[in-house]
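The records we work with from here on pair a chain with its fold. Taken together, the tokens spell out the fold as the letters spell out the chain. To see the layout at work, look at the sequence and tokens printed below.
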Amino acid sequence: MAFDRRRPGRKPGSARLALATLLAAIFPATYPGATLAFEPFLIGDIRVEGVQRTEPGTVFSYLPVRVGDRLTDEK
């Protein structure tokens, strides 16, 4: 008769899944590169390259920024 080490009601691999979920939640908070902010800058020029069937004005209308906007962490 084989001995089953699993607890009743638990699926195989659930401990690994719980550990992977915990590490995925903790890692971004402890990774130093994830918390660094970038230096805000002023958008001086936007170029549209490689568009063949769409007018550049259409592409610009979908962009959330415009020339002259200041790009920060919030925007």
